[in-house]
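Exercise 7. Given the components listed, write out the predicted structure of the assembled complex. Treat all entries as one system.
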Amino acid sequence: MKTQHMFASSIRSVIILLLFSAMAFAQEEKKTVTDTLVYKQKYGLRLGADISKLARTYFDDDYTGFEIMGDYRLTKRIYIAGEIGNEERTLESDFINNTTKGSYFKAGIDINFYKNWLDMENMIYAGFRVGASTFNQTLNNYTVYDVNNQYWGNQFTIEEGKEFKGLTALWAELQIGLKAELFNNFFAGVNVQLKFLISETEPDNYENLYVPGYNRTYDSSRFGGGFGFNLSYLVPIFKKDKIVIEEKEVEE
Amino acid sequence: MKRILIYLSFITLVTIITYSCERDDICAETTQTTPRLIIEFYDAADTDELKNVPRLTVYGEGLVTDPTEASDTTLVFNNNINLVELPLRIGTEDETITTRYVLEKETNFRLDTDDTTESNIDIIEITYSTEFVFVSRACGYKSIFNNISVTRVTDSEPWIGNIEIETTLESTIENENTTHVRIFH
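Answer.
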């Protein structure tokens, strides 16, 4: 009787052990499921101004200018973008004092390469623009370059200004920059610009030393450069869902 | 990967911009700017032959009189030479300007203590008008000279015979690549 009882109890303990181990095994078994998250993405018109140009207007006596920029989000990654501005710049060297004054606009697209996390809408982008400018140049005064003029001691300076009107220029531009949402709908951005001058109207017996929007020209090449620092505000027009599919492991 | 690409393009862009910002606002010495008047002296007897002017001194009229030593005001001093380069005065565009140079031959006869020998001074008068031509942003404008004419101021004892301006120049001096004026003596 006693041995039978012992046998039964040992059987029970084995069964319990097995049961527990089975339970423990069941706890290990998980399943991957896809979880669909939906974030609202704001689409709309972002409008802003170039702060660096405003700051330069304030600090630099030889410069006055402003630039308004805007972009419109077409798809998840592509934006139509453009800038419009006005600049007046005086360049002075030992022999030439020149003032360029005019307006420009640039139009193109921005492509966002940044994969945003959750509902964020920041940009690291590459942009392409075509820029055009109309401007006037005034040659305020100039000194005739003559290495031998010290012989007669007459450095000859022409003080009366000459104005070259109705000048135009066309260029292509590559931009790389970023835009970050500082707080709700309010963005700050920086970019660098590489410009390639396609065509320009050359003034008679002179050259374009500065082109609004393109910045200063170079004798040695048709490339130019620039940068921008802007603050902008997004006017949301509509919202689109951004669907994020996440894979999660869940218990059965 | 994408991030690396973005970084790379950023660096490339900055490099290109820096590279394109190379200094082109210093006027290189090799650039042809305002030319001087280049005069060569030829033999009056054999007009194809260059002939040195013995002990020539050249200076702008009014800058110095009877110089006794070489200085900044003498372009040539007491030298046997067959070529001189004369800077021309620059004035308002399209106005007729006159520059006069003193060409003193045998300067050593004035400098020495022998009173029986003397140097021979001839004065040439160069008239022209200036035209300012744009060169580059660094050099600005240069002047070229139009309607140039060179004459010898009348003198009782001239050593300069004939003065000829190169006909190919059409009275315009644009650069220093060629001789502009031949003086026969």
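Discussion: The two ends of chain B are 81 Å apart (CA to CA). Chain B touches chain A at residues 2, 5-6, 9-10, 13-14, 16-17, 20-22, 24-25, 27, 33-34, 36, 60, 63, 72-73, 75, 87, 89-91, 93, 99, 130, 132-143 (CB under 8 Å).
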